[in-house]
Amino acid sequence: MSISPSAHPIERLEPTQRTLRRAQYEAFEFELVAQGVLVRNASHANPEDHEYLVTIEDGLPHSCPCPADKHHQGACKHRVAVAIRTSVLEAARNAQRIRELEVCGLQATANPPAP
Ligand SMILES: [Zn+2]
Asked: Where are the domains of the chain?
């Protein structure tokens, strides 16, 4: 079965069943930041030690600096946690779009036409 571009983001991340389950039941907190979404796992006693910046690219949670994302196949639970919460993903995508517009605007004014 091929995956169409309109498929839900989760289908393109190809998480394992275990990752998918943990992404659903663990108490994640999300914060929109300039580079993407800061994912904090409030299931831990020290949530600030379990905080990862998930970057968004192409409308998908693209990368996470956690060890699991590096060493295991498929997306880590942080990326999946963002992907399955469409409101979080949508907000991050919108924020990214706005930033891109701002960058374009800044470049336009940084290079004014010569008099
Ligand atoms: Zn991760």
From this structure: 9-110
